[in-house]
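Hi W., the 6-O-phosphono-alpha-D-glucopyranose complex you wanted:
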Amino acid sequence: MCGIVAAASQNNVVNILADGLKHLEYRGYDSAGIAVIENENIHSYKKEGHVSELTSILGKDLASNIGIAHTRWATHGKPSEANAHPHISENSIAIVHNGIIENYIEIKEKFFKNIKLESETDSEVLAHLINFYAKDNNILDAVHSALKEVKGSYAIAVLDKNNSSEIIVARHGSPLIIGVGEDSNFIASDAHALIEHTNQFIYLDDGDMASVSSSEINIFDKDKNSVNREIKKSNISLGSNSKNGFEHFMLKEIFEQPEAVKATIQDRIINNSVPKEILGPSAEKYLDGFKVVQIIACGTSYHAALLAKHWFEKLAGIPCQAEIASEFRYRKHAVQPGTLSICISQSGETADTLSALRQIKEEKNYIGTIAICNVPESSIARECDSTLITHAGPEIGVASTKAFTTQLVALMLLIIVLGKNFEISEEIEKSLCEQLQTLPEKIKSTLDLDQEIAELSKIFSNKEHALFLGRGSHFPIAREGALKLKEISYIHAEAYAAGELKHGPLAIVDENMPVVAVAPNNVVLEKLKSNLEEVKARGGKLYIFADKKAGFKSDEISQVFEIDAPLNPVAPILFTIPLQLLAYHCAIIKGTNVDMPRNLAKSVTVE
Ligand code: G6P
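Structure:
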């Protein structure tokens, strides 16, 4: 992944680059760098660590009208100053790169056998390759020729010492947009980095290149034909990057869930019915002909897919598979004719999900593709036949919270529409719509558990391991709870379907093992109670998040947290909330970087 920002302006660009990097830190934060042209020379500054480390070394009087900058998430080579971007070749060409050059070793062998590289990165090789071609070509042609040698994915911005007015950019498989300004033009991995300067954006197509100066933008396709790409106005608001008084983005985003859910259902439920028009005109292509559903996603979005599988099959009688995108893309599939594919992705740029989608589009047995996505301009949203946007608003915390709950809400809307030709009757539709409409209030009441959970975290945060248990449609919620805890508190957590406990995990249960259970008042409640007795009998400590009608009582072994989650299909969404809070408070006590946990990044645009 990594974040790129660049600018060419009549004014000084240094602050634009530094501020842009701060907004892109969610894409990677292990090192950062900047290169500008000043007095016909390239000057570069790099630092290991967060963007603030870099900005602390930038002199107050550093000024330039053109520059490129980068915040890194390490793929090739450890986080270090040497591996940080920009990479510079002979003080002539500087590049920032997002993606992976898969054949960089072959390129090094072919062109630069005897050059000693300064870094361990694939990106440095690309800098040398562009410089190699720039000796006999203008910089645009040099970049074009270099990229013809490259296998892999890239978004790049290139500075040429001999051309101090233009930045050359290109993308293939990694996102890159151009921000259009008055006496400045900008480049970035996403619009948030630039929203303080412009709301007009050009979304480059895969394979596009462009030359960008303060007054001109010229775009070319992969064959170097000049092309026009539409300028689009973004709806992102200026305040959307702020913490609004919360200590962390993650906490703010947890507390934003009632509003985010409301926004996601708004105008999509009319008189307790969900019109098929929410899927747009392309839905006609698949609505009457699809027979089965296949969902592809990664990380938290995959957990949303797992819950949706339960809903599709239970509520609508539609056969549904849920697949991890990185697994899906490298195995042979037996696809049933009439398969409708759904890609779930907060960012809409996750490389594995995007590649899986592109494979699906090549295969004849798929009848259509639908995106559940939080970013309307993203690649996945643009490449699917229909897109159901989750109106979560920007999610900055690396650990996904409101994106997850709004994905579930969007999936439920989708199931209602798709299920009408199957088992969703008017009565079921009405009941599901009512449940969705009461959800924001119910989430609000569940958030009242915050202080109680903060207390629990004082005990919990000392633990090194934790087990999360759930059954049926609540098992994906237990998995998501374990993932949240791992991601931000670094406590090793595993989730099991409670009935599986006796087939192995029970062996690790003792008085040091906290066991978190998700306990709705449903048909498997009694089964779950028996599973929890198995834990008690081994001295395991139980923390039970239970519906208030489930009949659990706290005792010396178990602590019960009551949730008002009436027995209905949307209940799993409510059980997500306390598990998010548990992870958050444990992380606070452990003093981890909640919004930017170690080794992770929000948008994973590399394999
Ligand atoms: C990263 C993020 C996760 C996210 C996953 C999938 O790993 O840290 O929070 O769930 O990517 O991202 P997507 O944008 O496709 O939902």
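The pocket of 6-O-phosphono-alpha-D-glucopyranose is lined by residues 298-301, 345-347, 350, 353, 398-400, 600, 602-604 (CB under 6 Å).

W.
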